[in-house]
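(Deposited chain)
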Amino acid sequence: MKSYHVNKGAGIAGLMVKEHDIPVPGPHEVLVRVQANSLNFRELSILRGYYPLPIRPDVVPVSDGAGWVVAVGSDVTRARVGDRVADVLFPHWIDGPWRQEYSAQIGGSLDGMLTEYAVLSEEGVVQIPDHLSFEEAAALPCAGVTAWNALTGARPLQAGDTVLTLGSGGVSLFALQLAKLFGARVIATTSSEEKAQRLKALGADDVVNYHTTPDWDIAVRELTNGRGVDCVVEVGGAGTLEKSIKSTTIDGQISLVGSLAKDKSTIDINVISSTVVTLRRIAVGSRAQFLAMNRAIAVNRLKPVIDRVFPFDDAQAAYHYYEDGQYFGKVIISHS
């Protein structure tokens, strides 16, 4: 079998292919024949050297993968040979609030999914909805679960609420699609008219172009008759957080997913002091949240948005394409 390996800070050029014997699952473990992967911003931050969680040396990268269970170890009760599964990014986080002891993560302190075969704990896999291909299911473990957690993990989203999503990355698109399942109104921001039309086709009720409307928080307020949105899925970090706060109703919630900002922007303390908005940091989600999301996806036959699919042998090209940032939806690596 083949797998890719990388070291923290090594850059895309440091992505190397190695050959191994196919592993054998131990007690409470399963062997998955990986069929597809998807890329997330965490993969770039690992290669750039600033991912905040521990990264083991010579790690098999990529948190997201889907495939077949082809073997099981002794005492396995959660999976069977032939199951179609995706991995759980934090396999020790079964349910409940985040705790430090759950921090072991696939593609970081644990080997990841950019490999032909992966041994995972039985708690570290979930069955995927029947209507999804492996390429579609591979998009779920990081971006999908993060969006679900952002919308349901604290104050659950209610029908009639208004959600603000930023841009057209994987988490934002999942948040848009999932929020519509709850009967919410969605306002999205984007950078072009072409993307605006695609967001509307996915269900966005209103779209604000932040290039032509740099004060997009004012536009969001106007679209909500001055009230503000109930929930923001915030992916920009310090670069957009102040505007997100200004866009949110006084007792609303901002789910802070991560930071894509390249500068060290500061936030006016007066903006924070003028509201009782809840700011909640998101760390992907638990196995239980993954299962709940999959039930909603299956019932509604939701399909992730895929931008482009690369073959396994061209993983470096997939990384470069993802790094360029011109995608709309998930960048997938297929093994078939």
